[in-house]
Specification:
Elements (H helix, E strand, L loop, with lengths): L1 H22 L4 H18 L1 H8 L7 E2 L2 E7 L4 E3 L23 H10 L3 E9 L6 E10 L5 E12 L2
Antiparallel strand pairs: 1-2, 2-3, 2-6, 4-5, 5-6
Helix pairs in contact: 2-3
């Protein structure tokens, strides 16, 4: 009986740990939802209000371990809550990840063509230096030359 109790307690503890970890991680559905919310804000309140909200690290577009960023179709970063330095550049198209992938170019191309979809690349999680695989949803704001993106880290740290 003791062995069965110990196995049951270990299983329950394992489930609690998994649930606690999952509660802190953003999901693909959450990224899609937040991107659509940001696009709706751009349409209803304007770009300036959206830049302020999206660029705020304590704002409504930062949640769990993810965030929304805003770019235009020329590759200019307009708002980023954790890398505001990127907004001071003329464009970010020449930036690459550690595998030499020009992922911002992929973002722009996806926004221009399909209007939405997913891109995989390498990028650090907010507040961390270690690089991990990331999967980001890109969504073009209807009727605008703008798009928003939000992503999730996939797997563990790779570097």
């Amino acid at each position: 009986m003791k062995k069965t109790t110990m196995v049951a307690l270990a299983f329950i503890f394992g489930q609690l740990v998994v649930n606690a970890w999952a509660a802190g991680a953003a999901t693909e559905d959450g990224c899609v939802m937040k991107c659509h919310e940001a696009a709706a804000m751009i349409k209803s309140q304007g770009v300036d209000a959206a830049i302020k909200a999206i660029g705020d690290p304590k704002g409504p577009f930062v949640w769990k371990d993810s965030y929304v960023f805003l770019m235009n179709l020329d590759g200019k970063m307009l708002a980023h809550p954790f890398r505001p330095d990127l907004t001071h550049m003329d464009h970010v198209l020449l930036m690459t990840d550690p595998t030499n992938k020009a992922f911002f170019v992929h973002f722009v191309n996806l926004a221009r063509t399909a209007g939405h979809g997913w891109v995989e690349y390498m990028w650090p999680q907010p507040g961390k230096k270690a690089i991990s695989k990331k999967r980001t949803y890109i969504y073009r704001v209807p009727g605008k030359d703008l798009f928003v993106g939000a992503g999730i880290s996939v797997g563990g740290v790779l570097y």
